[in-house]
């Protein structure tokens, strides 16, 4: 059997080639069962590929080939014939299948191209639709934005109108308040003036009121000196009596006979009687001196009360002068504030006009941007046409390109003319805005000058404390009816004062005697420095009184010089400030006069008052009135004040920035 198979393989050379080559030549299976199996399998697995089918056919052919080779030689010949027939039929079917595949592939390619073409057309249509929808949406959005802008513009105009009305109402209200305040200050100024005249009159009466008391005090002091002189004589006599009594007592103790002792005792009795009389006189003189001292104390107390009253009136006079100065400066400050308020009223329409012009400028910028974009697109399109014109091969194409270029150039010219119009309008708006800024800057500079003047006035007012109402002039009724404090002293105090007077006189007598003894020992005249016949006690008293008067005069002179120096410093500081305020260039002064004249005319039309130009100048270089007291400027500030000032400046700067932002982006 094996030998037959080998012979069969040698006899059929195709069996030596690979199966894939045999299949490639179109070998067709004719076995019915196999074809039925393949058909059923194809129906079950309709999703298999052609390659999988070929592989399966190869496996089945291999199996059948092995099975055929195992058959008998008789069947092999029949099989060869059948295989040949099948091979021819398979080649024919393969050609048909390839033709069908080619046609199907061509049809599929046509369908795919048609589908892609339809898809491209659908995409183009969708792009066109989206573009049109986007354009419509943009147009609708632009219309809505334009409507919103118009509404916003109307709202801004309404807000602007409300702001201007609010500013006007506030100005009217503040003007009314200022008028009331001016009336109140005028009334207060009248009261201060009346009080100042009353104080001047009262101060002039003080020397006349003091003169009787001073004369009375001089009389009492002279009487007191006479009594002290008498008391010194009495004390000297008492001392002589004591001395003589001591001598008599020594004689009495040394007497040897009764007559001599009796004489000494009688003399001692007489001396004791004289001593009693002397002591009674001493008590009487001491009481009289004490009475005079009490009267002098009462007079000095009254004089001190009058001096205190005079000092209080002088202090009040200075306060009134300061208040008058403060009222005068406040009046000047109110005038300047009024000018500043008028400037603010002038600024409001300028700000509104500038905001409106800036809005128009923004719209012009937007239109200019759109035109520039269109111009850029036209230039690009013109460049493309120029390139196409260069590449044109025929005359018709060149003519068509040139016509398109003509249309593009016409559009370009039209766009450029629109751009010129918008640019001219923009330049015109910029010129108007610049003019408004220039006017606004001039007004702000004038406002800054006025505010600087207000700050200078505030510096002068810093230490002036206003009084709500002028103080009533104190009653100048004499207070002589008041009982002095010394009269309420008890009897024991009187005795002590009496003893003090006596002891003081004794001390002065002892001091005078010691001085006399020293002068005698130095062989100098006892009373060389004093007038003849003038007692030592009186000389000492005159020296004490002289020293007291010198001290009083020195104190008064020092106080007067200090006050004069302070007044000079204040006047100098005031003059320096006024000089600084008065240093204005001729151009600024001329501009200021024109500005004040213009404001004055408006104010005259509005309120029926005189022009500002006819009013008195706010500050002059003339010497201030003699009655006005000017405070000196503070030289240094504490660290807390500096920190507080910096914080206030920062807050003020922040508030100004916020106000500018709101005016720029919210209200205008």
Please describe what this structure looks like.
The chain crosses the membrane at residues 643-663. Residues 521-535 have a biased composition (Low complexity). Residues 82-92, 536-569 have a biased composition (Basic and acidic residues). Residues 210-463 form a coiled coil. Residues 69-92, 516-569 are annotated as: Disordered. This protein is mainly α and 668 residues long. Among the domains are: 2-141, no CATH class; 561-620, no CATH class; 636-668. The chain is 84% helix and 0% strand. It contains eleven helices and no strands. Helix 5 (73-254) runs antiparallel to helix 6 and helix 6 (258-391) crosses helix 8 (491-521). It is elongated, with a radius of gyration of 67 Å. The two termini are 116 Å apart.
In quaternary terms, these chains amount to single chain
The main β sheet shows up as: none
Average of pLDDT? 71
Query: In DSSP terms, counting alpha (H) and pi (I) runs of 4 or more, how many helices?
Result: 11
The number of E-state strands comes to 0
Radius of gyration: 67 Å
| Uncertain segments | 8-16, 22-30, 465-493, 523-538, 606-634
Write down the secondary-structure element order.
HHHHHHHHHHH
User: How does the overall form come out from the CA principal axes?
Assistant: elongated
- Gap from first CA to last CA: 116 Å
In percent, how helical is the residue content? over 70%
What is the beta-strand fraction? under 5%
- The secondary structure category is mainly alpha
